[in-house]
Amino acid sequence: MIVGSLFQTTSPLAYIPMIVSRLKPFDPSQLNSDVWFDPSDASTVFVDRTGTVPATAGDPVGQIKDKSGKGNHAVAPTDAARPTLARMPKTGRRNILEYTEDFSNAYWQLFGGGVKEAGNRLVSTGQARSRTQSSVITRTFPVGTNANFSVDVYPDVGLSEIYMQIRQNNEAGIAGLPTAQRFAFASLVNTAGVSEKLDGNGWRLFVNGTSTVEVGTIRFGVGLGDATNAVPNGMGARVTRFQATFSLEATQYQKVTNAFDVTEAGVPDVWSLEFDGVDDILQTSAISGWKATGASFSCAMQSDVVASGKSSAGMVFGLSVSGFATYYTLSLRPNQPLASHAVTYRVGGGALTQASLNGILNKTLPFAVTAITDLTSIKAFVNGELKSQSPTPAAGTIDAPVIIGSTEQPCKFYGGLMIKRALQETEVKLLSKYLVDKAGVTL
Amino acid sequence: MSDWNLSVVIIVPAALKDKANYLSCAIGHDDMPGNTFSVPLSADGSEPATHYGCRTTAKQEFIDIMTGAETGQLPDVDWQDYNMNVQDIADILSQQILDVRDAGEMSGHFGEVLELNSLKRVKIDG
């Protein structure tokens, strides 16, 4: 029976695996890559070059393990060449301060008396104006800069008021911003700031303003007492969760553990390897057989390029071999002397072919670049779209290590893969979307 | 929290490059013969290099070792295994340029130290 056989072969249950397959998010392991680096996978990043001490945000990375299963781990040639593992909120960093919950750090300095005690406490020594301020934050405040400052304060019993300090240095204020904003806890009287009650006896205090003069540095902190009235010796407050942002509106607090470790509650983390543009580099052992079947790489990066007038070892991701003749075999590198990038291809000392990305990349945002060589041309894709291509001579085999990092300009690496075949354009789109999402960008 | 909170730039004269690389190997930061000092430098950016430099992320204990060495407190290392003697270390320490900053100042650190010492990177054409 026809109906009966249809029921036997097209049961609704038979469609479930296909539907599930189509709904499954893209997974790079589907590509059977030959190299796959993912700094967001904590199980793959290590402080030491031998790969035994797990790395956390702020640590140097001496080895990143290959997730392809092929064992092509990338290692720093020396300890000095290790990039730094960084963690930032997906929405980007707003809090320009550092060590925001570590009041003991030297970043927080004392002015005019007072002492720092364990537990993030600022305590009066009985002098007028016992106060703390951050180290100098060298950030230009042009005229018209909006700024918002906030801090959590837990006053001792008997402490009636506290000051938020915003200054260029120890004394000079910034026109347009409240220099020393007084908050009186008993009455919550404040003229320019606002406060928010926290659990326990704490308050989160806010002030904002718009600068009317240009300054190049700021300091932000809290103070006990004013010029004539001292807080009694030994009295103080616990102060923590400092924040300074460039907006009039108060925004959710971001914890800045150090310059390479910033987190925000409820916001996904974005992990990267930060290369110093001096000597930081990671490289695999030589991997053979790239050319025979074509080759592709795709990576998520953020990198500016400085036009130096000369080509040099500015490559940020790709295959490379030591020696000038075959230096840039398949790579993303500066398109010198232009201040831009290019995907380049060169084999066996032949001519350098490059697919230029001049004027295409937005260097202030992370981007996914994919390079494909299929024996006849080199193609460069940005965020999954074909942007540039050039014919290439067919040539022999490439046996080369994969390099991450540049000795020309600082760059951030969010992840990347290399595959010994020319990817299809549908694969490029899926992979690009996956990689830039790792960098906090949604296509 | 990471305690790798320092950015360190070290520059040595070209004549001391090999010994400085050996020293890096001897204290466990490189493998013989070493290439820690890998960035060629000169006054105008042209060859030959007169100095070599590196930038690294470090812990305070690295600075403590350097400071101790300046006062004669050397790590327990068999220096001959690294083609060095105590005088070599003294030579490096007395002639090196050492600049230590917060790790957050990594970006631009190397370039600023070069500028302060009237040095430029030697570009390798390629």
How would you characterize the overall build of this protein?
- The complex is a heterodimer of chains A (443) and B (126).
- Chain A has 443 residues and is mainly beta.
- Chain A has 3 helices and 30 strands.
- In chain A, the strands form 6 sheets. In chain A, strands 1, 5, 19, 21, 26, 27, 28 and 30 form an 8-stranded antiparallel β-sheet that branches. Chain A has a 6-stranded antiparallel β-sheet with strand order 7-8-16-10-14-13, with no helix packed on it. Chain A has a 6-stranded antiparallel β-sheet with strand order 20-29-22-23-24-25, with no helix packed on it.
- In chain A, strand 23 and strand 24 form a beta hairpin.
- The longest helix of chain A is centred in the C-terminal third of the chain and has 14 residues.
- Chain A is elongated, with a radius of gyration of 28 Å.
- The N terminus of chain A is likely disordered.
- With 126 residues, chain B is α+β, with helices and mostly antiparallel strands.
- Chain B contains 4 helices and 5 strands; from the N terminus they run E-H-E-E-H-H-E-H-E.
- Chain B has a 5-stranded antiparallel β-sheet, with helices on both faces.
- In chain B, a hairpin with an 8-residue loop joins strand 2 and strand 3.
